[in-house]
Specification:
The structure holds two protein chains of two kinds. By secondary structure, chain A is of the alpha/beta class. Chain A has ten helices and ten strands. Chain A has a domain of 152 residues: Rossmann fold (3-Layer(aba) Sandwich). Chain A is 36% helix and 22% strand. In chain A, strand 7, helix 7 and strand 8 form a beta-alpha-beta unit. Chain A starts with 15 loop residues before the first strand and ends in a 14-residue tail after the last helix. The N terminus and C terminus of chain A are likely disordered. Chain B folds into four domains: 34 residues, no CATH class; 196 residues, no CATH class; 99 residues, no CATH class; 320 residues, ABC transporter involved in vitamin B12 uptake, BtuC (Orthogonal Bundle). Chain B is built from 30 helices and two strands. In chain B, a hairpin with a 2-residue loop joins strand 1 and strand 2. The chains are: A alpha/beta, B mainly alpha.
């Protein structure tokens, strides 16, 4: 661990939240992930980097149940409870286990307000059914009130309080990202998977975002798994970095170690005889 | 060289010279065709031609095409094309104003300022009135040759009025316009009265001699003047009066309108019942009031809206003021300086209550025939379309076999009342069958829904379509159970209550039924609107808009889809009980697929996802053809209904795709889709673009994972 986030105790390595073992994902003849093994420790901020097409988002989709890998195992261990396999579980069930995510392209419910967007996340674990909702039973009203308060808290947490009643599609790009984070946090997760949260944001917003990601961990105690191309953000936030290339883990370690790793530099800048030209920023 | 060609070359100087001129012209033309205005014009003209053909004379057996050619003959086609052009102009101008986005008040204000544009619009409107009047007149009585001339003269009267407005508008627009209305009124009076002046004018052909026409013009002029006064008053109130006094004035105006409407209405009734001693009749005899029931109803409804609006506003204010301490507690949503949007919609509530009053009051004054239509053809369909609105509007599932659940509800009723060839274990009053029918329809809904709702939109539509057909065919062919095409052998009894000493039967007139269904419909409206604003409703919106994102926040989309399907089905089954015990005998023909489509049309026409829209769509579309039929309009056939509905839907999709009274969310979705931002497609549910690759719908990714031909999204 380097000096990336001073004041935070490094996570104990034996408390693993996500354990990915030998995962292989193929689409027809194309192998997207081949024999990927990694582990996510409780309470850390782990970043996955790699050139375009390295399989980062595929890995996310495997972790959240969108894709089912052909080989390997993915075990999620909640803080209280038994370890469960994510493989073959439906995305909404994986979310109920305590895994929330954001998307590479922002996917808000664009006809709803910011408030309603976050509220959908908050109330997804409530129990009001159709009949209770139609009759406005006491429990329905109580749950509505609870979720209202929680939503407002989350909006304050991500700094969208002023925009609560705006239509989400009218938000600027940076705010959409934060809205998605708030919506994901609304489901009360133990692990938050962020898929390129800084894409399309300006430098000032990136600084705020880094702050927000650190707060998610320190204030809410949520483990963060981050995919990002912006190396400045990754190096400032992440405690550990895993590098993927062509569906394989090629390196892992602290940010300082990764910056010096020749395999990684070759993957990004291209080996002397290769013409790969992706992701050259800030390395 | 044509002028067009010159124009083209002058514009496109940068283009290579060797390009043939014809190509340039065609390019120019195609660019012109691509503009919105050109497209709109094309649509309007096409619609006019279609309308001309549709309303044309029928063909005979000897010459089947005579209807077609007859309807496209020169003067007729000319008028229709003219009407199309007028509609085009009106739409273009209204869109030039900024369309529906500006609020009504600011539009009123800006219209007062923009005199020229307003005059153009008014002229177009007059032309449209004249043209439509002509078409209507020539349609219902094609033999009278004098009517086209009258229409032209009415047009001239409008033109004269506009001329007065134009000449004097530099001094005072409002006075000038009133002068114009006075002129129009004078023209009407001249046409109506018998005196030497009008006789002379008639002989020289300046004014027609027609009582109806004269009265019509007179009332039109008075109405325009009244409207003018109303607009003026509104603007005045808005500017000078504080809200409290304004509200009082508003209320006063409402009461006046209400009384006036009531008088008008009673006049009509009195006239018909020949009770010459009533006050209203006296008013009518001195021509202070027209004797028209419809006009009276409309004015009364407007007055009722105003009065109820103010009353609701006052009541809510009163409650707030009384519970001063509670209001602080009421602001519990205030958090960190913001409040959740919990505004009370006065206007919406007022309109709803007023509409309810009209719905309660109106049928009392109708003929038994119309009452029966309102019950069996309108009220039950309102229930149906509210149920389908949950499926199509809220959850975004395209259900084409919706009527099957209605059939199930109806046949359940028939079964338990012992009207079917097979006998039930116990015979029940229709009232106690309601839970059985709901459960039967809901179970079927869940059974059909659970496997098919995993499919994407289009497949679901086909499966439900098939299901609807199956139910109808089963009802037709299972003679031993349903009685076959001849219908149920027994008679289904009507509703009755025998409980705790209360004995009441819904027999005799149809009105008690009407009120029963009305009550049920109101309960459903309230329940569904709660539902829409709840967690369940929001989850439906989330699934409709982006199923992958909904999955990612832990929403079980299949569960919610099945839930919507079951709610829709049970509403339908519920309506089936009412239908069965009202018509008392079922025929499989009642449950054909067209009825499903019809109910879908109501929902789309009214505005998907909007409860008020579903109600309005069903009432309008169901009531109008029945009304036309009762009033035996020439050439109107029931079978034609779908032609008109089709045309109506096409026009709706072009000009107002969100429906008449769209829901807020749905309107936003459609606007976003038009801008290419959102994901929402038609009711079939969202169709994902996979340009960014990473998030295909879950089922899609899983289904195609092992297919050899599938190229994974991560390969770029």
């Amino acid at each position: 661990m380097t000096d990336a986030t001073p004041g935070i105790a490094p996570a104990t390595t034996d408390d693993v939240v996500f354990s990915v073992q030998h995962v292989t994902l193929r689409f027809g003849g194309v192998t997207s992930l081949s024999d990927v093994s990694l582990s996510l420790n409780r309470g850390e901020i782990l970043s996955i980097i790699g050139p375009n097409g390295a399989g980062k988002t595929s890995l996310f989709n495997c972790l959240t149940g969108v894709y089912t890998p052909q080989e390997g195992s993915i075990i999620f261990t909640p803080e209280h409870g038994h370890a469960v396999s994510v493989v073959g579980r439906k995305p909404y069930k994986v979310n109920r286990l305590g895994v929330a995510r954001t998307f590479q392209t922002s996917r808000m419910f664009s006809a709803l307000t910011t408030f309603e967007n976050v509220k959908i996340g908050v109330e997804s674990k409530q129990h009001t059914g159709a009949i209770g909702a139609m009759l406005r039973l006491p429990r329905t009203r109580r749950e509505e009130h609870e979720s209202d308060l929680k939503t407002l808290e989350l909006l304050k947490f991500v700094g969208l309080t002023k925009r609560a009643n705006e239509i989400s599609s009218s938000l600027p790009y940076g705010d959409r990202r934060r809205l998605e984070i708030a919506r994901a946090l609304g489901t009360n997760p133990e692990v938050l998977l962020l898929d390129e949260p800084a894409a399309g944001t300006n430098p000032a917003e990136k600084v705020e975002l880094a702050e927000l990601i650190r707060n998610v961990r320190t204030q809410l105690g949520v483990t963060v798994l981050l995919i990002e191309h912006d190396m400045k953000l990754v190096m400032s936030v992440a405690e550990r970095i895993i590098v993927l290339n062509f569906g394989q883990v090629i390196a892992q370690g602290s940010p300082a170690e990764i910056q010096r790793n020749t395999v990684v530099i070759n993957a990004y800048l291209g080996a002397p005889d290769s013409d790969e030209d992706n992701g050259t920023e800030a390395l | 060289m044509t002028p067009t060609g010159l124009h083209t070359e002058a514009r496109s100087g940068a283009r290579p010279l060797n390009e043939p001129r014809r190509a340039q012209v065609s390019k120019q033309l195609s660019r012109l065709m691509a503009t919105a205005a050109a497209r709109r014009l094309g649509i309007c003209l096409l619609a006019a031609v279609i309308l001309a053909i549709v309303t044309g004379p029928p063909g005979t057996n000897a010459a089947p095409t005579s209807g077609f050619t007859g309807s496209l003959q020169f003067p007729r086609l000319f008028w229709f094309l003219g009407a199309g052009g007028v509609i085009f102009a009106v739409v273009s101008i209204s869109q030039g104003f900024g369309g529906p986005t500006t609020s009504a008040v600011s539009r009123v204000r800006s219209e007062i300022v923009r005199v020229t544009a307003q005059r153009t619009m008014r002229l177009a409107l007059y032309a449209a009135i004249v043209a439509i009047g002509f078409i209507w007149v020539s349609w219902i009585s094609p033999k009278d040759t004098w009517k086209p001339g009258v229409c032209i003269e009415v047009g001239c009267a409008f033109a004269a009025m506009e001329l007065v407005v134009y000449l004097f508008e530099s001094q005072s627009l409002r006075i000038a316009r009133l002068g114009g209305y006075a002129l129009l009124a004078l023209y009407g009076v001249l046409a109506w009265m018998h005196n030497p002046v009008s006789k002379y004018l008639n002989t020289i052909g300046a004014v027609p001699h027609s009582r109806t026409l004269g009265l019509l013009l007179l009332w039109l002029a008075l109405g325009l003047a009244a409207l003018e006064g109303l607009l003026f008053g509104l603007a005045f109130v808005h500017r000078h009066v504080d809200t409290q006094r304004g509200r009082r004035l508003f209320r006063l105006g409402g009461v006046v309108l209400l009384v006036y409407g009531w008088l008008m209405w009673t006049t009509w009734s009195a006239w018909r019942a020949s009770t010459p001693h009533s006050v209203a009749h006296w008013f009518a005899s001195v021509h202070v009031l027209p004797h028209s029931r419809t006009a009276g109803l409309v004015v009364m409804a407007i007055g009722a809206v105003v009065v109820v609006y103010v009353l609701v506003a006052v009541a809510v204010d009163l409650v707030r003021a009384l519970s001063g301490s509670a209001s602080k507690q009421g602001n519990r949503f205030e958090f960190a300086g913001i409040t959740k949007q919990t505004k009370f919609a006065y206007g919406k509530t007022a309109i709803t209550i007023a509409a309810l009053l009209v719905a309660i009051q109106w049928p009392l004054h109708m003929d038994p025939g119309i009452q029966s239509i309102l019950t069996t053809q309108v009220a039950i369909y309102v229930l149906l379309s509210m149920g389908l609105n949950v499926v199509v509007g809220f959850a975004g599932l395209l259900d084409l076999g919706y009527i099957a659940f209605w059939a199930i509800g109806s046949y359940t009723t028939a079964y338990f009342t012992g009207a079917l060839p097979i006998q039930p274990p116990f015979i029940l009053n229709p009232f106690w069958i309601i839970p059985f029918a709901i459960v039967a329809a809901m179970l079927t809904g869940v059974l059909i829904g659970t496997p098919t709702l995993r499919l994407r939109g289009d497949y679901l539509a086909i499966v439900t379509l098939g299901f609807g057909e199956i139910i109808e065919i089963v009802a037709n062919n299972l003679h031993g159970v349903t009685g076959g095409p001849a219908g149920t052998p027994g008679v289904i009894p009507q509703f009755s209550v025998h409980l705790l000493g209360v004995n009441y039967g819904w027999t005799g007139t149809v009105l008690p039924y009407y009120y029963l269904i009305l009550g049920v419909a109101v309960v459903f409206m309230v329940g569904f609107s709660f539902l829409e604003q709840s967690r369940v409703g929001r989850s439906w919106t989330a699934i409709r808009e982006d199923e992958v994102a909904a999955d990612s926040v832990g929403i079980n989309s299949l569960k919610y889809k099945v839930m919507a399907f079951a709610i829709g089905a049970s509403t339908s089954g519920f309506a089936g009980v009412f239908f069965a015990s009202q018509v008392q005998s079922l025929v499989p023909n009642d449950f054909i697929v067209q009825t499903s489509i019809l109910v879908l049309v109501f929902v789309i026409f009214g505005g998907m996802g909007s409860i008020a829209g579903a109600v309005i769509g069903a009432s309008l579309i169901q009531w109008l053809p029945q009304y036309l039929q009762v009033h035996s309009f020439q050439d109107y056939q029931f079978q034609d209904e779908f032609i008109y509905l089709g045309a109506l839907l096409v026009l709706m999709m072009i000009f107002r795709p969100q429906g008449i009274v769209p829901s807020r969310r749905r309107r936003r979705e459609i606007l976003l889709t038009e801008e290419g931002v959102g994901h929402s497609e038609s009711p079939g549910g969202p169709v994902r673009s996979t340009s960014m690759g990473e998030t295909l719908p879950s089922s899609y990714g899983r289904l195609s994972l092992d297919e050899p031909g599938y190229i994974g999204p991560e390969t770029e």
